[in-house]
Amino acid sequence: MAQEISFTPSTVEQVRAAVADTRASHPRLLVTGAGTASGWGAPAEPADAVIDTTSLTGVLKYAPSDLTIAVRAGTPFTTVQETLAEAGQRVVLDPARARRGATIGGLLATADAGPLRTAFGSLRDLVIGTTVVLGDGTVARSGGHVIKNVAGYDLAKLFHGSLGTLGVVAEVVLRSHPLPPAMCTVAVEAGAVEAFDLAGKVVMTGLEASALEWSGGRLLVKLEGTPEGVEQRERELCRLAGATARVLTAEEADAAWAGVAAIADGVQGTTVVRIGTMPAAGPVLVTRMVAAGAAVASSMAIGVHTVRFAGGDHDELLTQLHAEFGAAVTVLRRDGLSADRGWGPPPAPVRVLQAIKRQFDPAGRFGAGRFSPWLEDEERAS
Amino acid sequence: MPQRLHAEFVEAVGADAVASDPVALRSYECDGLTGFRVVPSLVLVPRTAEAVAAAVRVCAKHDVPFVARGAGSGLSGGALPVADGVVISLQRLRSVVEIDVVNRRAIVEPGVTNVDISRAAAPYGLYFAPDPSSQQVCTIGGNVAENSGGAHCLKYGFTVHHIHSAEVVLPDGSTTVLGGDSPQLGGYDLLGAFIGSEGTLGIATRITVKLLAKPAAVKTLVADFPSVEQAGDTVSAVIEAGIVPAAVEMMNALAIKAVEAAVDAGYSRDAAAALVVELDGPQAEVDAQFAQVKRLCEEFGATKLRIPASAEERALVWKGRKAAFAAVGRISPNYFVQDGVVPRTQLATALTRISELAAGAGLRVANVFHAGDGNLHPLVLYSEAAGEHERAETLSRAIAELCVDLGGSLSGEHGIGTDKVCSMPRQFSEDDLATMARLRLAYDPAGICNPGKLLPTPRLCGERPGVYQPHPLEAAGLIERM
Fold first, then answer.
1. Where is the FAD-binding PCMH-type domain (chain A) (predicted)?
2. Which of A136, A293, A308, B327 fits a 20 to 30 Å CA distance from B307?
């Protein structure tokens, strides 16, 4: 077997060269970014070479008036935000991992997002173009530099959540939004059921909350906009929510959102999973998880729940969640799981996933094991 | 079509769902892009998702190409039939299966019209956000196939942002579900890649769409400008002020004339350009930003501001705007609709170059566009009778390719279809296109699902050397390349 080596390309061409040159000598590749999601999904099998994207950085083109920015995929998300902030803009995404240096490419490959997902989705909804490098050295672009564009297939979607199993994401073009001039967070003491009802009311009243996150016995509502607008909506929200609603100070708000992020981060010895449900099924699940001693951050209005189990053995718990929620369960941290623990029941179109893997990476070069056991039959066959 | 094959289709969908007489077949020969016409061998009009799957299974078994069709209102020839193939019309699958108020979503069949979803959701204070101008007739299945936009996608995004899941009949006739109950689902985003795939990856037979709460407040203004450049600069100023309007639309003098001739929507007939700006959201947000937009319009030289005083008046403004394509028929016997996108900051350059190109061709171009996102709809006016067809077609293609050269795209919302398939190499390299073809192969190795659309082929666009793709048997080590 070839000796394990590492490449740190800083341009698309260098990525292409590294991938193409190792076809024979180092067939199995592992793509890494900042390493903030190395525990996600199933464990990667040992590779012959690592494509480390942390030098693949830099803003390629920023057009503030067009609300678009093109960056190399290894650029840390916070660097992108800093660049945008200078022109009064941002990418409307707040994943917990950003604080730990997560890269744009890594966030795309993991389909990660934070509480702002309630209003703005994930990178799937914000990426307007990508350049990827496939295992045979093909460099392929899709999308472009304009927000509205339906020419060709949108390959960025395939790489969203691909965990490095299709190829290397080398460049990404993102849609930016103006930074809101004002924002506030209102916290409402509420159990999961009440919080779900309140979240529904907030949506139906047209308050346009950017985030509606239940955690630690309260619903956190983020309002963003003009100073006049935020003030009016804050008053309306407090009226709607009743006596336990409180507008947080800036420091309190920062602490509250940091608490939400900490649940996704996990700590040594914990297991963290993200579960998708129908929104209305959220309160029951969340209540059960809390009763089992877990910490939960739940985007109530859209049914995305991040659950952190404290120390111990969590294999049995995961088995139950898999049985109930199937492919909607993603492991984010696996300290309480047995080493080879993989994904649960595959999603309905697993044959399509396999066919795409076979088409894009016929030699099986990328990320072996990360979707185990979903792609394994195919991997064995190839 | 051979009698035995015909019988299999009858068995799959029922005799009353098979049309084969020449007159019926002729009525499916084109979609909204009438310049391309192909009469199919057979038209199937199944009543259930199961029948759609059964029909596709027959196609798969005998390698018969099939083309799915909704309302046939597409403007890129995406539903153009294949001569030796069948058309599968989804027109009979048009029930709104469920409105789930608590989870704010609707389960609908693909033949339901865009506007009927919002109609069904209205009693609950909900609506479906994507609003293509053809929303009265176009179907949700078609919207999914084309990733349709509309006037309000500047703030609300496109169809892809408003679909939770879709039951899909794959090209082998099997049925699966893409997407899920929430955005959190392991694996590649197959639903996202399916939306906008122009009917080339399968047929959606049941779609779960996202419903939004109606905005608390809506305010609209129509501003007249002495030039399209000034109107364009105003749009830039609004965006740069950090405002994201629900919609920003522009029409030039020719388009205004057409609209007024057809609809009488109250646009000023003598304006060089009209800008429609709509803000929606919480009342105080809308009030604050509306004042800012008004001020910017005045600052950039608006000669008149009209603010609809009622919902009815606002509806009339939109009726005029959405009728623009059809209205152009009032001022020209024939026209082509173009759909290019430029980075918004290139709008003025694009418009200047388009008028130069039009002058060079000796033809008139009406401009209607989604100014907020740089999506142009130049309407190339011509007369078939005067023999201007070819000149108009050339001009129309030149405009689309100009958009690519300015850093934009061939299509913002109408799709590539048949119309622009041979322009694709202008925007994408051979490797880009070959990689897109891999996605298609994963779904449709036999190449029977809406063939000839979206990706150029040597047969359609002349010989073009492609990247070498090993035969599957060769890849599996069973045969060797000689």
1. 1-179
2. B327
Kindly report the nearest CA distance between residue B468 and chain A, in angstroms: 12
Contact A66 B344 (CB under 8 A): yes
Q: Kindly provide the ipTM of the predicted complex, given to two decimals.
A: 0.97
Structure tokens at B408: 């934009």
pLDDT in tens, B115-145: 999 999 999 999 999 999 999 999 999 999 9
Q: Where are the beta strands (DSSP E) in A252-321?
A: 271-276, 295-299, 304-309
Report the residue from B178, B285, B475 with minimal CB separation from A225.
Answer: B285
Count Cβ atoms below 10 Å from residue A63 Cβ, excluding itself: 17
Burial class (CB within 10 angstroms; exposed 0-12, middle 13-18, buried 19+) of B107: middle
Write out the DSSP string of A15-34: HHHHHHHTTTT---EEEESS
Axis crossing angle, helix A350-360 with helix B430-443, rounded to the nearest 10 = 150
* Cross-chain Cβ contact A150/B439 below 8 Å: no
Work out the number of other CB atoms within 10 angstroms of the CB of residue B208.
21
Compute the half-sphere exposure of residue B136: CA atoms within 13 Å on the CB side of its CA.
5
Tell me how far apart the alpha carbons of residues B12 and A161 are, in angstroms, rounded to a whole number: 37
The answer to whether the Cβ–Cβ distance between B187 and A374 falls below 8 Å is: yes
- Residue B15: how many CB atoms within 10 A of its CB? 9
Number of C-beta neighbours around residue A154 at 10 A? 28
Tens of pLDDT, residues A123-173: 999 999 999 999 999 999 999 999 999 999 999 999 999 999 999 999 999
The pTM is what? 0.95
Q: Phi first, then psi: what are they for B102, rounded to 5°?
A: -65, -40
Tens digits of residue pLDDT in A286-317: 999 999 999 999 999 999 999 999 988 999 99
